[in-house]
Amino acid sequence: MKEQIGFERLTGLIAFARAGALGSYSAAARSLSVSPSAISKSIQRLEKHLGVTLFTRTTRSLVLTAEGRELHERALRLLRDAEEIEQVAKRTRAEPAGTLRIAASLPVGIHIIAPLLAQFCALHPKVTIDLRLNDQVVSIVDENIDIAIRIGDLADSNLLARRLPPYQIGCYASPEYLANCAPPEHPNDVIGHQTINLRYQNTGQLFRWPFRVGEREIEIVPSSTVIVDASEAVIAAMAAGAGIGMASNFMVASLVRDKKLVPVLADFTVERRNITAVWHESRRANPAVRAFLDHILKHL
């Protein structure tokens, strides 16, 4: 079992690293805000423990020995790591500022992120938002993205991730459409209605409508009178009275609130937990990223 390093040896290594880099005990003492004698004693104790002489000392100079040169780079690495820890801690306490680059799909960007930006910017006036909407998954490293909000199952990666609250997928129609026909009472009844469906742009496949029936989840692909390749067009067609469509509840919340859309087959809606915020390790201590993540989790 390896012996754990003690506090005294750790301070000795820091003193050695700084003295070797600056060329004198006095300069090292000034940079560390201690006395030259404290530096000298720490290095002497370190030399005694290691059993090597680290410096050749004269009245005018301080020169690393061959053994000292070999160990100095390692000691410098330790000092740099300690300084980086301090900088990370300072950034953690810092006020969010600068440009925050956010990537999301069009539906998530329009219906989840954009409505939260006014309040976020009011809380953090030093942050400017660069929101990039694209239904294709972008590389947050290559595109220099600070945080991405993704919908769907995540591929294995080394990105940090935080799952956002669940949402529901269900059917909706306009009051005008439902005034002219009896609403369906079971998913199988959708077959007899005019429907609007989504065709995925990247695969050309039609969206399979999911329903929760008892303990099972079933899927139906209706023979739709209207097929579009953007979810916003599904919603617009539903609101215009073209028929029944399926959408996520966060996408139609305002239309339902304004009574422009009505839930259909509400007892058969399904729940999804696949909206995730992801960011790279290098953004872990970014105050703007942390502030935005806290904000979106608080308001969803």
From TrEMBL:
Q: GO molecular function terms here? A: DNA binding; DNA-binding transcription factor activity
Q: Which regions form coiled coils?
A: none
Start and end of every HTH lysR-type domain?
Answer: 8-65
- Keyword Transcription regulation in the entry? The reply is yes
A Pfam family hit: LysR_substrate
Q: Which UniProt keywords apply?
A: DNA-binding, Transcription, Transcription regulation
Q: Which domain of life is it from?
A: Bacteria
* PANTHER family referenced in this protein's UniProt entry, alphabetically: HTH-TYPE TRANSCRIPTIONAL ACTIVATOR TTDR-RELATED, HTH-TYPE TRANSCRIPTIONAL REGULATOR
Give the UniProt family note.
Belongs to the LysR transcriptional regulatory family.
Q: Can you name this protein?
A: LysR family transcriptional regulator
